[in-house]
Amino acid sequence: MKESNFKFGKLVLIFVIFHSLACNKLKDENIILGNDYKLILQDSIVVNNLSRILIFDYDENKNLYLGFSRDEEMLVTLNTNGEIERKVDLKGDGPEKYGYYIRNLGIYKNQIAIITNENIIFYSNDFEKISEYPYNSSIFVQSTSPFAKTMFLGEEGEEILIINPNLKFDYYGNDGAIDTLKYIEYFNFEELKLSNEIEAFDNKSKENSIFFDFNTPIISINDYNETLYLTLPLSEKISVFERKNSKFNKIKDISLEIENFIKVDPLPLGTEYGTLERKQQFLNGSRIWNIINFSEDVFGLIYFKQFDSRLKSELIEESLNYSLIERYGTLELILYDNDVKISSEIHFPNGRFVTKLKENKFIIEKPENLEIEEDFTVYYIYQLISNKD
Question: What local confidence, expressed as pLDDT, does residue 168 receive?
Answer without folding.
Answer: 52
